[in-house]
Design a protein that fits this description.
The protein has a domain of 32 residues. The protein is 73% helix and 0% strand. The protein starts with 12 loop residues before the first helix and ends with a helix.
Length: 63
């Protein structure tokens, strides 16, 4: 019997897009939800008030 040559399976690039989107979304959430952890350090470094920093972060979240 003559079997046609089978080609190795290629990667479906839709999964690459899914993985890249997952990585970008995960990074965005890490930045957004870790703000409170870094707030005291940023406040001490810049000398800005907590109100100023949280307003800037609020504008980031809104936009």
């Amino acid at each position: 019997m003559n079997d046609p040559e089978t080609q190795p399976a290629r990667v479906f690039y839709g999964w690459v897009v899914v993985a890249a989107t997952f990585a970008v979304m995960m990074s965005a959430y890490v930045v957004q939800f870790s703000f409170g952890v870094f707030l005291p350090a940023v406040q001490a470094e810049t000398g800005w008030t907590r109100e100023t920093l949280t307003r800037a972060f609020g504008m980031y979240v809104f936009l």
